[in-house]
Amino acid sequence: MSEVAAFQSVLRQLSVLSPEDWVLVEKLLSKISVKPQPAQKDPNGILQFAGAWSTWADDEFYAFLNDLQEQRTHWFSRDFIS
Q: How much is the mean pLDDT over the chain?
């Protein structure tokens, strides 16, 4: 499984957890040693993403936009404080 696929899988699984389960997730994550990634040294590095979707077919691009809107709606409309 690629890193991107794993990340997406984790996000999907997290999105269905109850607020009570977030406590367990936080405890698990606090036990994992995460090393911060060094700051990007090449100021033009981020530019490689600019226009990356220009090579996508129209249907792929619109599917991406629809998926993005659905994810934003889902993540930013949840009531995490009960």
A: 78
Rounded Cα distance, 9 and 39, in Å: 26
Distance CA 16, CA 32 (A): 22
**Which residue did the predictor score with more confidence, 15 or 50?**
15
> What pLDDT was estimated at residue 74?
78
| Residue 56 is assigned to a structural domain of this protein | no
Range of the domain at 23: 1-32
Number of folded domains that form the chain? 1
CB 61 within 8 A of CB 53: yes
Closest CA to 82 of 11, 15, 20: 20
17 within some domain = yes
Q: What is the pTM of this model?
A: 0.36
Q: Are 31 and 20 in contact (CB under 8 A)?
A: no
